[in-house]
Amino acid sequence: MSTMEADNSDDMDREVFEEVDPSGRFGRYGELLGSGAFKKVYRGFYQQEGIEVAWNKVKLCKFIDNQKMIDRLFSEVELLRSLKHGSIMSLFDVWRDEEKNSLNFITEVCVSGDLRAYRKMHKKVSLKAVKKWCKHILKGLSYMHILKVS
Predict the structure, then answer these.
(1) Same domain, 86 and 28
(2) Helix, strand, or coil (residue 17)
(3) Could you tell me if 105 and 120 lie in one domain?
(4) DSSP strand E in the chain: where?
(5) Which residues form the signal peptide (predicted)?
(6) How buried is 101 (Cβ within 10 angstroms: 0-12 exposed, 13-18 middle, 19+ buried)?
(7) Are 113 and 54 in contact (CB under 8 A)?
(8) Could you report the per-residue pLDDT of 78-109, keeping only the tens digit for each?
(9) C-alpha pair distances (Å), 37 with each of 6, 50, 57, 62, 65
């Protein structure tokens, strides 16, 4: 096999990412999963673990005149990093992109979106399932109260 053929096969094996994190572990696709006033959430991929993730991107330029809000945002992300519980979304990594003036953080992906959207999508949900959801929510809340998280 020629060198050119080997290079072409390597290109075909690579993921097509819009962006890659500084460590090279996470890649961001162009697919937008959701957005809010300050944050956009993209579909991502954790290459080492082989799982899909949510790539959260906050444009810090929206807070250029509000250092208190930037500090609060960073403290909330650090709080999320410290939480380790099966009923609470996991944070895999966080970094600030100085060049793009953004805060990026990688979390577990919730393929169904939030609970409200999931409930609207599925009209008939058994009482057993609703109880199971409530149990997970209460376990997460209990864990945070034990840690005195506010």
Answers:
(1) yes
(2) coil
(3) no
(4) 19-20, 26-35, 39-46, 51-59, 91-97, 102-108
(5) none
(6) middle
(7) no
(8) 888 889 999 888 999 999 998 998 999 999 99
(9) 45, 30, 12, 10, 16
Cα–Cα distance, 109 to 116 (Å, whole number):
16
Q: Which domain holds residue 132?
A: 112-150
Match 């409930």 to its residue by tokens.
119
Residue type, 108: E
Position 75 in a domain: yes
Of residues 65 and 52, the one with the higher pLDDT is 52
> How many residues appear in the chain?
150
Q: Are 140 and 87 in contact (CB under 8 A)?
A: yes
Instruction: Please give the average per-residue pLDDT across 72-79, as a whole number.
Output: 87
Would you give the DSSP letter of residue 14? S
Q: Which residue has the tokens 């990412």?
A: 17
- Residue 98 domain-assigned (yes or no): yes
pLDDT digits (tens, 9 = 90+) for 3-27: 444 444 455 456 789 999 999 999 9
**Region 27-41: what's the mean pLDDT?**
91
Q: Are residues 98 and 118 in the same domain?
A: no
Round the average pLDDT of the chain to a whole number and report it: 85
Q: Does residue 1 fall inside a structural domain?
A: no
> Is residue 5 one of the residues assigned to a domain?
no
* Residue 123 and residue 106 share a domain: no
List the one residue out of 44, 149, 51 whose CA is nearest residue 105: 44
